[in-house]
Structure formats: C-alpha cells, structure tokens
Structure prediction request, 266 residues.
Amino acid sequence: MKVTLFTSNQPRHLSFANLLSKNFSEVFAIVESNTVFPGKINDFYKDTSLMKTYFSKVMNAEKKVFNSTSYLKKNITCLPMKMGDLNMCEFKHLKIALNSDIYIIFGASYIKGWLVEYLINNNAINIHMGLSPYYRGSSCNFWALYDSNPSYVGATMHMLSKGLDSGKILFHSTPEYNNESPYIFTMKAVKKAQDDLVKKIKNNSIFNIKSMKQNKDLEIRYSRYLDFNDEVVQIFIERNIKSTEIKRLLQKSNKPKLYNVDSSNL
Prediction:
C-alpha cells in the first residue's frame, strides 16, 4: 500500500512517518518545517521566557513518548519545505506523491486551492489533535486541560474538508491516564491516535467506517493560534496541574460522547 503524509518536522510528526514506513510498502512525506526549538527561536511561537519554559516541558514529554525520533527511514520519499509553502505548489511539484492509496494530513498548514480539492476527492484523512466537535482549532488538548476538561483530551480522525476541523468524523481516539504530567498525557494522545489510525488502515476497517457529520452545537471552544499567548501560558504554568487534580476531574466531569472508540480505549 502506498501512503502519502502531509506533516511537519517535530519528532512526533517524523515518528509518525516512520511508523507508516514500518507498516506500508511505500511512504511519501511532504514535510513542512518550523524551528525545532519553539520558545527559543522566534518562529511560529514567540521567543519569550514563558514560551521557552512551556515548550521545554512539551519537548521533554515528546522525547519520552517518541524517543527523540529525528531521522526518516530509508523507504520514505521526502519532500521538505517551509511551513506555508504547500499552497504555492503546483501539481508537478507533488506529482509522485499524488498516486497513493491513502492520504493523511497531520500537522500540515491549512491546505487550500487545487490541492485540497484533490485530497478531498481522494478521501484524505486529517488527524485533528483534539476531540471535535467539542474542541476545534489550534492547541486543542492544551485548551481542554486549561478549561479543566481532561476527559476531552484526545484526537479526531475525520475526512478532510475545506473548513477547519469540520469534516465528517471517522473515529475518536483517547489516551489512558496513568498519573503522568499533563504534558505526557497530551503527548500520549498523539501517539495513541497514530497507532489507532495505522491499525485501522492495516486491517482495512478504516475503509468500512460510516463517517458522522459533526454537530457544531456541541462546540466548547474554537481556539485560534493567537489565543495561545504568554498570558494563558503563564496561567497554565502557575496552576501546575497535578495528577491528583486530573484524576479527580476525570472521575467527576461529564464524559464527551465519542464516535467509534474501541472499548480498550476507555
């Protein structure tokens, strides 16, 4: 099976490309790049002391969950580019990657124009880190914890659409909580989503799932990139959420209604 992945260049993204390469015969990876030192380099996020503190915790969690993966395997055909360049590409630039059996978007920039039309017509799947339709937009699992809603930490596999995180849902994925830090917990959600999607592709069940339209009336928060700033990061860091608080909230709070979640996920 040929798989094409549109993704980014952090360890969790490159690790997913390598996971695909272990399970499928041929993988094409279009990798958009940001700095690998968020909070230290002024790039997608500003280089402030608060961002540096926050992302140091994120990066440490990422290393523990994904084992610091930073190199792609030999059987991956990779096209690197700067974040945001994707919508400048013509068909000829991506031609060899556009003859696959399945297309996955994970961490890529917002895709528009002819490419989104092509991917929609070829049933592309988007991995949204957050439980849609409850949390949509940017940094959703951060906001779920910020809102004291740890039961809403997870991922949504949905059909790609022109609207942001609005495509029909295939299934949700949720991580188990084992008394870890909130940073490990949210990073485990990423790993669980990757593993669940690969499993469903391998056993072909992904092709038999009846997708479900999202109910936007259930939305709790629609977060934008600019909402994630020093002020909210400072509040989050100062709260210093403990495992006892997460456990209490998981037991106390209402659980979201999820779609096609295996009983082993609960």
User: Anything to note?
Assistant: The two ends are 30 Å apart (CA to CA).
